Each structure stands twice: as C-alpha cells, then as structure tokens.
Amino acid sequence: MNRKIFVFFIIILLTGCGIVKKKTTYGKERTVTVAASEKDSVAAVEKIPDSKVTVVVLEKADLIINTAMAYSGVRYKYGGTTKKGMDCSGLLYVSFGENDIPLPRVSSQMADEGKKIKLNKVTKGDLLFFKTTKRGKKINHVGLVVDVDGRDIKFIHATSSRGVIVSSLQEGYWNYAFVKATRIL
User: Fold this and answer.
1) Which of 21, 71, 83, 99 has the most CB atoms around it within 10 Å of its CB?
2) For 39-59, what is each residue's pLDDT tens digit?
C-alpha cells in the first residue's frame, strides 16, 4: 500500500511540475549593428548629467582604515594579529599588509618607516607614535589616523585595557604620551 502511494506521489510530482522544453534560437545567428559618427557619440556623452554618473574610488588610506576598523572591539593580546587577539603594532601590520604595504611588526621599528610630519599636517592613514612608559625611552605604541576634524585627530589602536578602539589625540593620556607622526602613504 505504501509503495503504491509513493509511486503515485512521484507521478503527480513529475507531471505537476511539468516538463517544458526550452525554445532555443541557436539556429539563427544574431547580429547587432550600431552606426555613429565620432561627433554623435561625443554629443551623447555630454548629454549625460553629472548627477547620474557616480564613481566611488576608495583611496589606499580608506582601504587600510576599513581593514583596521574591521578589528574594532577585538580584545588585546600581546603579539596578536588575528580576531582572537590583537596588539597595536599587529593591528597596523595586518591592516597595511592586507593592502600590499609591508610594515615592520614592532612599533619601534615602524617609527623608523615613512616621513616624519608635523601634527597639523596629519591626514587619514598617517601613523601616530607614543611612549606609554615613564622609564622607557623607546616608542612602544602606535595608532592609525582615521579622521581629522580641525584639531581633533581620531586614531584606531589596540589598548591593553579595552582592545581595539578609536581614541582622540585630545585625550590627556594620549596627548601626553605622543611622540611623533609619520606618513607611509
């Protein structure tokens, strides 16, 4: 009995869906001909209003920033370079590296790369370097500038207490620890 019902169900299913043969036009060759003079084509291009043509080109700095921002909220891990844990230099090492710009792995060595720039010339994609220990003479922290609004410079970095976050250089701690800015791009 069950077998008869199963066979009946399969027959209904196959006939209910219908087997349709697709019509094809492979037998005839199709050609499209367009005739226009150079003058006509230029006029046609000029008639397109600018508002209808939108081209989005992300600069290298934006691509690097987007890569770094993808790690927002990742916990801090000394020597980390993954979503499981990240340190400050690891964040920039990965962000630049994924965009085909090699950087040294350690912040003190990163500080030797690029061109030193004045703080009032900083733009998106520049690096900020810090000394966060009282005794240390060596740079031990780095951040990536993500936004500049007047004197307010925002940068993404990995902190040991809060992981990967965006901070402002106007915050007292970071302003005090700031050493220099460099441009890699």
Assistant:
1) 71
2) 333 333 344 455 555 455 679
